[in-house]
Amino acid sequence: MLKDKKIFMARAEQPLFLLPQMANRHGLIAGATGTGKTITMKVMAESFSDMGVPVFLADAKGDLTGMCMAGEDSENIRSRVEKFALEDFQLKSYPTRFWDIFGEHGVPIRVTVSDMGPMLLSRLLGLTDVQSGVLNVVFRVADDHGLLLLDLKDLRAMLQYVGDNRAEFTTQYGNVSTASIGAIQRALLAFEDEGGEQFFGEPALDIRDWMRTDSDGRGFINVLHAQRLMHSPTVYSTFLLWMLTELFERLPEIGDPDKPRMIFFFDEAHLLFADAPKALVQKIVQVVKLIRSKGVGVYFISQSPSDIPDDVLAQLSNRIQHALRAYTPAEQKAVRATAKAFRENPNFDAEQVLMELGVGEALVSFLDEEGIPGMVERAKILPPQSLMGPADEGKVEKLIVADEFDLKYRENVDRESAYEILARATEELALQRQREEEEAAAEKERLREEAAAEKARQKEIAAEEKAAEKRAAARSKAMQRAATNAANSVARAVGTNLINSVTGGKKTSAKTIAKRAATNALNSVMRSGTNAVMRGLFGNRK
């Protein structure tokens, strides 16, 4: 709760305050299961809301929905209020919005594939370095060709397009293997089987919609339903990393404000870093370091500080450490390291106290006005003012339906993007190929018909030539027959005259005989020639 414009978080011998101007220096809430981390997170979130600072919470167990309802009065609450001397303590509800990636228990959350980017998407799909390189090529080709990647069908279409044209793209962007394309496609199918297809699309979340206040000036508490997400830890962690990156890239620099612009609480923080590639961890460290200047505070919630990489842990200046249990040498070593991370208090042994803390107790250290870590204190955390457990489902449902953002984000919008453009291009290419095939078939048929006509014409010419040759042969034969007949006629005439002269017939001179024979032969030749010519012209018709 707020007191003197400071966040009253816990009480040791004196009240312990988290200073608003130091809240964007990030923080850590750690402790074993059941030691009170969730209550600590709720108390802090309520205080930020009262201060007018929007808050994001990941609800991993389903018990944060109660923030939309006032807490219930009880003997335990009254006892704690009296013990803490909380004069202004009031049980009340807080402005709460509910979100759900799957759209079942809150306003749907979607991001576009392009916004997610190849690095986070590679982690989401569990790709190897080689496959991640191919995915980078796919994103680059999409950018260079003006193809929007909004949802998974866009990405699948783009993978198919790059795979089909890999010879062309390999020379320009680097090697693209069919094996890598196939592996990415299989990873997408597995991701879709987990319901991940609902995560990508439009309208994409405008993260500035989380940075709202109500009519009373209190910051909205944005609760992400994360129980189902816990079954897909990679999706959960990748989404949280996307949020950090989105905030970092979109918010302007404001330096160190009097109070944060927004506060993020990341429960189950170890999932952010489990099996994360080195490049991704470096990206997280960079964002955590620099997002402070954007006025955003990030608070990690985990069972042990050892769950978080040292480079990130070093940026978490405000710490609330609940009890740790140490049953093994490794756990004892972790307790020792955790105790030494605090600024020592000579009044107690932090390592020993860490294993003695009860529920709702913690070792607390906040930054002072100069940004110096305060001396560690053993303290009791204040009770929340909202309902400790989950809210009534009917109440939550009414809030979701009445939320202005449910109208904005509920219906999926599928505008033209890579899938539609590539599908249309494929259809046009298929039609063009069909037209070309039809034109080729028509041209082939035309050539066939021309060849058949030419063949028939050549056949007719050949027949005419053959007929002409036959007629010429007939004329030649007729001429030969006429000449032969003429010669025979001459011979008969000469023979007859010779016989007549021998037998005493009428005498005829040899000259006369020869002349008559020649005349008869010429007449015979003329008749034969004339007949041959007539047969050539009219055939054998009479």
List its traits:
single chain, 542 residues, alpha/beta, 13-stranded mixed β-sheet, 17 helices, 11% strand, rod-shaped
Q: Report on the biggest sheet.
A: 13 strands, mixed
Percentage of residues assigned to helices = 40-55%
Order of helices and strands: EEEEHEHEEHHHHHEHEHHEHEHHEEHHHH
Distance between the termini: 136 Å
The low-pLDDT segments are none
Descriptive overview:
The chain has helices spanning 37-50, 75-84, 113-125, 129-144, 152-164, 166-173, 178-193, 233-250, 270-273, 278-291, 310-313, 329-340, 350-354, 393-402, 404-409, 418-503, 510-538, and strands spanning 2-3, 6-11, 15-18, 27-30, 55-59, 96-100, 107-108, 221-225, 262-266, 296-302, 318-321, 361-365, 377-381. With 542 residues, it is α/β, with parallel strands linked by helices. A hairpin with a 3-residue loop joins strand 2 (6-11) and strand 3 (15-18). Helix 3 (113-125) runs antiparallel to helix 4, helix 4 crosses helix 7 (178-193) and helix 8 packs across helix 10. The longest helix is centred in the C-terminal third of the chain and has 86 residues, at 418-503. The chain is rod-shaped and about 185 Å long.
Please give the structural blueprint.
Blueprint: E1 2-3, E2 6-11, E3 15-18, E4 27-30, H1 37-50, E5 55-59, H2 75-84, E6 96-100, E7 107-108, H3 113-125, H4 129-144, H5 152-164, H6 166-173, H7 178-193, E8 221-225, H8 233-250, E9 262-266, H9 270-273, H10 278-291, E10 296-302, H11 310-313, E11 318-321, H12 329-340, H13 350-354, E12 361-365, E13 377-381, H14 393-402, H15 404-409, H16 418-503, H17 510-538
Parallel strand pairs: 4-10, 4-11, 5-8, 5-9, 6-7, 6-8, 9-10
Antiparallel strand pairs: 1-2, 2-3, 2-13, 11-12, 12-13
